[in-house]
Amino acid sequence: MKQSAAESKSQRIARVLEAEIRSGTLTDGAALSSENALVERFAVSRTTVRKGLGILAAKGLIRTKVGIGSFVTYGGAVIDSGSGWSLSLADGRARLGTRILRIARLPMDLDDPAPQGEMLAVDRIRFREETGQGLTLERARVPWRDDYEAVLSEGLNGGSLSRTLAARGLSPATGEEWANVLCALPAGDAALMGRRAGEPMLRLRRLTRDGHGGLFEYVESVLDPEVFGLHMEF
Amino acid sequence: MKQSAAESKSQRIARVLEAEIRSGTLTDGAALSSENALVERFAVSRTTVRKGLGILAAKGLIRTKVGIGSFVTYGGAVIDSGSGWSLSLADGRARLGTRILRIARLPMDLDDPAPQGEMLAVDRIRFREETGQGLTLERARVPWRDDYEAVLSEGLNGGSLSRTLAARGLSPATGEEWANVLCALPAGDAALMGRRAGEPMLRLRRLTRDGHGGLFEYVESVLDPEVFGLHMEF
DNA sequence: AAGACAAACCTGTCTAGACCTGTCTACCAT
DNA sequence: ATGGTAGACAGGTCTAGACAGGTTTGTCTT
């Protein structure tokens, strides 16, 4: 077999496996085949397979444990504790696009956690690419720090606020998450999402704290109930 | 065998048992099943079971005596599990009454798990005592066994199906749970609950399996979204 | 009724082997 | 120098046993 010039074998392996993960063939939490099985499947050496898996691990798509194997960690938007909810797409294959509504510095504007002064606010919508209809509306608030100035101008690392914070060495120590039914979508949110007001929606609120109990991040999400659900294994 | 997270089998066993201890299913001083029984239940080797028990012992949750068995030594407050989600009453203290709609032997009548033949069915409503309005509607299905005959005539142990099963030495090895928004309460369920049809509701589905992957229990619940939510700490 | 004994449990400990990832080295090709 | 191959080795995880010794219980004997 001829090797396409631009892509090494390990990159190809990573690409094929990533496609299987993102397409849902390999679902969240599922075990990948063992390295030796992948050696068989791709007819390459184990070194090459491991390089490919390394690429996926660096992207955060899989995690591997000695003596056990590699596991898909994509889509578990929550924690890696293995014992939490993960948000799941109930509706098989919906292609999601993302649009950032704003990244701004402003006083706390959400009701729930005690007012905390200036915040870094990130509002984001995810929408169905075919129709443009908004499927999720997420409002994240993080206590302002001066080194967030760069975020305002340069945006987020990989579109993810948690990744942006992690890149600054910030990660939460504890947290809570609530899920409930929002019986009627408010008109303002409906307009932003391109939906009808009054629809029932799935609502998630997530509050994380740093080691000293201070607010780390607060996220409020409204999700299309036809597409999103929560899933847990135990 | 499919493993659900990047977690070793012994860790999973420890986690499941810890949840049972902390949730009060296994109370202080109670004996755990013997190691060989746990081998059966989780379908793993005794070495692995012992590793799991070792984790619990290291946490001080159990103590084991030669020739006798392992015992729960967790005396502390039996608050909620800490791992996984717990159903929480959003609406402070609503006094709940319980009404069993039926306990019956019948062929599988719910859509979700593959049809399994005869089932023990328990349908139950929880309602607000002040108003009589139904807050939850739960349908539980368990594959029929002949020794359930007594359940049909004598009812459940303490009103709980899981407790009834546990009393017969039956407990699940693994399970999954889904939560989503039921956009419109069907008319039939609405009549049972004394609610208006078409209301949005919170819907939970829970499927547990025995160690060999066979169906253990399936429960479908519909919950008042004003009163119930999901909560998780991590 | 009291004691001895055996069977059936239980945990503690050990082994051999299968299969897994992590790491290393030596070598080849472009 | 880079990317791939092939193999060896260490160590983690799990299985399937065997064996020793503690505990309980029922039964048989005295």
UniProtKB/TrEMBL annotation, chains A, B:
Stored Gene3D superfamilies: Chorismate lyase-like (3.40.1410.10), Winged helix-like DNA-binding domain superfamily/Winged helix DNA-binding domain (1.10.10.10)
Keywords in alphabetical order: DNA-binding, Transcription, Transcription regulation
HTH gntR-type domain boundaries: 7-75
GO biological process, one term: negative regulation of DNA-templated transcription
Entry's Gene Ontology molecular function annotations: DNA binding; DNA-binding transcription factor activity
UniProt superkingdom: Bacteria
Family annotation (SUPFAM superfamilies): Chorismate lyase-like, Winged helix' DNA-binding domain
Name under which the protein is recorded: GntR family transcriptional regulator
Organism, as annotated: Salipiger thiooxidans
Lineage, top ranks: Bacteria, Pseudomonadati, Pseudomonadota, Alphaproteobacteria, Rhodobacterales
